[in-house]
Amino acid sequence: MSTPFRTPSGGRIDRATTVEFTFEGQTLTGHPGDTLASALLANGRHQVATSIKLGRPRGIAAAWAEDPGGLVQIEEPFPEPMLLASTVELSDGLVAHGLPGQGRLADVPDSARYDAVHHHVDVLVVGAGPAGLAAALTAARAGARVALVDEQSEAGGSLLSGTERLDDAPALQWVAAAVAELAASPEVLHLQRTTAFGSYDDGFVLALERRTDHLGAAAPKHVSRQRVWRIRARAIVVATGAHERPVVFADNDRPGIMLAGAARTFLHRYGVLPGRDAVVFTTNDSAYDAALDLHRAGVQVQAVVDARPEGSPRRREDCELAGIRVLSGAVVTGTQGVERVTHALVAPFADGEVGASTAIGCDLLLVSGGWNPAVHLYSQARGRLRYDDALGAFVPGEDLDGLSVTGSAAGVLDLPGCLADGQRRARAALTALAIPPAGEDRLPAAPEPAVPAAPLVLWRVPDTSGADGSTSFVDLQRDATVADIARAVGAGLRSIEHVKRYTTIGTAHDQGKTSGVLTSGITAELLGIPVQDTGTTTFRPPYTPVAFAALAGRDRGRLFDPERVTALHEWHVAAGAVFEDVGQWKRPRHYPQPGEDMAAAVLRECAAARTGVGILDGSTLGKIDVQGADAAVLLDRLYTNLMSSLKVGSVRYGVMCGVDGMVIDDGTVLRLAEDRFLVLTTTGGAAKVLDWMEEWVQTEWPDLRVHCTSVTEQWVTFPVVGPRSRDVIGAVFPDVDVTNEAFPFMTWRDTTLDGVPVRLARISFSGELAYEVYVNPWYAIAVWQRLLEAGRPYGITPYGTETMHVLRAEKGYPIIGQDTDGTVSPHDLGMAWAVSKKKPDFVGKRSFARVENQNPLRKQLVGLLPVDRETVLPEGSQIVEFLADGQLPPPPVPMLGHVTSSYRSAELARPFALALVRGGRERIGETVHVPLNGTLVPVEVTGSVLVDPEGARRDG
Amino acid sequence: MQLIACPWCGPREEVEFSYGGQAHVPYPDSPAELSDEEWAHYVFFRDNTKGRFAERWNHNAGCRRWFNAIRDTTTYRFESVYRLDDPKPVTP
Ligand SMILES: [Zn+2]
């Protein structure tokens, strides 16, 4: 297969190997070292896609990430949308097609691996062009710990695109020697195919390494596809180069129109001629290199169109020697062609006026409007930009602490200048780090550059008669034009950020790499203000798109968040438990039997606990061991009730409030010794309560002799619940006298089972006679099975969290965080009994006395019984009341409160709910309404305790 | 992501820390003797300083210790960290 636009020799491609790829269904060939873009061009293919809004043909317009045209979807080896043909390295079997602005995500899971690595260095150099290599060598030679990252497949930067010479040899020989020297330096990490995409505080840079993308289907499975490097650098040298800037003119978007520098890259790096007949349109000297190089490679350069009145006398001479026509004081005003440019319309240009145009036939139109330093990383680090009038570009305006910019990213556009500047910046960074520079740190000898003729800053070619700027594209990806900017300015927008959002310029895939500064320039021109005053839009990470899969790394699926399971997890799984997430814990929600749904299972489990015996895995309960001579003092200050009076061997329920007097957690406290308590917290509140205790001990009461330690995972907890629980506990622990007299409610006892220490506590979260069994997790399954065995005669029934919730709600026990929301005091919960009147102070006490907290119309916890005995009110439902005349008040209807917990009760044989209701306790006996599905459900307000309000069952 | 210098552990990643609000707001000696307004000032009112601000921080995913810091709220930069029993540094 012939690739008609491949040069006979040269380039960085492996001509000995041919790879096959498919584009838009057509099988084509290329070589390793090609990008998809260079391979397409080698096959004579410029058009890649059509544009998103207007459907205009679009092609490859640049050779790297700044390309606004060549957007593709990859199908093989793995579907991936929105990549640039110019940055996709060619691999055998690649299948791709062009995209009109929007891609398609894969509908199969990505089986590739992604990972992340942390790395710490003295000096991070971003960019391995001449300035970056010089900086990295200087830092490495001084013995500093260095990282050098560069987004291309090989080092060299702009040297890969040209014919420069260093030390009297091709510059790439110096690049190879520099890379070898860095490889031999033990403290240097050198990564290619690695894009530093974000710079953050304190020298933190994120970089994406594409490790196997270029290998295509041959990528080894065990190597991560992409890796995010999380680099912390004491000093950063940004050597990210510059992007060539186009000039805007009518119909500047046709395939075959590209940046002049890109054509040079395709020629020298990939051995590709991007056309046969070229017109070069420029405002500066750099595009002459492209014209002359293409001419030497056999391209007919029809004309160099230089907008400057005098052009460049020196470069004109070069062109005349080569026989290239130069039209100074001329511009390209438009183009012809449909799927490919066929003519450039060239007109004289003087004093801002455009004359009559002539069509020059061409299949390639190269454009250069100057160079924009790639200041993204500097700007992300909050560096201020300064508009440089001569360059027509924004350059770094100040030195940042720990971050400096060098080379063409800093506006230095000649090779010896870049080398010297890279070395100088690295030396300054070393000095700041107090690392002495190496004695020997030679730069390669570069030919003295000719002084270029001053560039002209030209954002756009003025409209010729009849043109309105509606085909003068500023952002090709968004189909946004000069006319759109004019409309934005006409609508009164002044801020460049507003213009961006009005026109959508710079919001596409390329984030305005070529369009951003043009927009600033054109906006300033239309407003008649200096470009410095419009400024640029904010540069935000990422510099180039990063796949979510790469950012997620290994934190996906089961590794997304830690999963905590109890010692009985396998048993629960085998028993067919349906799990729910409670914080990070996996807890059995219910254990359905064949044919049961959750409602049926829960009714069965509840009935067992209320009439026989049930058992729960309550191991997730938070447990904090509070020890020390002042342990009781601490608990007295943090709980609303008195803990110091608790006897060793006893248990007390306690409520904890914030300083605002609102409940933050509740639970029971076991006194283990005079100077030791075991504090039980809610499952979700365990970490927060430990934090809370430590905060007070450290920040307010450092004199207290007390230590708090989480022991949640050191004990499993099995509540054995129901009227037959005493029989079960008595059978399993024969050494314990389980009578009420010997082992009363709210006490605990230690015992042993076959020599294993076990703690039993008479704590009930259901209102039933109940014993909590505590044991070391190693013995969890053995103890659990003995309890099940002993309970078999009584039909012992394992139950899950749903049944636990129904049982506690029937008793009016609130769940902090479900029945409360941070605005609920113990009094609102009807727990004034748990608030000590004896203690002079405790956290929250003073707030209880605030006038607002005495308001009888505060929301209070009450029970609700739907009058129809049928409706299970959705949790979160609002509650309203009728006026005296039986009508709803006019809108907005006042809300009395909301349903916090709602279940179907086996015991009550009807649904019920808990709710926070304004002045709720005063409303007991009233009927209020809950809006539901367009109707109003009447509900009776009751006390919060609906089952066994006398508490007769707790002793069995 | 910033580095925060824990007085006990040295510079660590920001994600290891949690913010604890304004520093040097001691729990009142006798809350019962305060008016509702005075008490509300302790509970709810904090300075909203632009510039240097004395703050409490907790190295909760590290040594779990609380400490104080002077941080510039306009630049986020930490100017100094100090232990709870150290006096508030005099800032220029
Ligand atoms: Zn620490």
TrEMBL record, chain A:
Its EC number is 1.5.3.24. Binds 1 NAD(+) per subunit. The keyword NAD applies. GO terms for biological process: tetrahydrofolate metabolic process. Residues 859-948 form the Aminomethyltransferase C-terminal domain. Residues 122-380 form the FAD/NAD(P)-binding domain. InterPro entries: 2Fe-2S-bd_N, FAD/NAD-bd_sf, FAD/NAD-binding_dom, GcvT/YgfZ/DmdA, GcvT/YgfZ_C, GcvT_C, GCVT_N, Sarcosine_oxidase_asu. Belongs to the GcvT family. This is Sarcosine oxidase subunit alpha. It comes from Geodermatophilus africanus.
TrEMBL record, chain B:
GO terms for biological process: tetrahydrofolate metabolic process. GO terms for molecular function: sarcosine oxidase activity. Signal peptide: none annotated. InterPro entries: SoxD (IPR006279), SoxD_sf (IPR038561). Pfam families: SoxD (PF04267). It comes from the Bacteria. This is Sarcosine oxidase subunit delta. It comes from Geodermatophilus africanus.
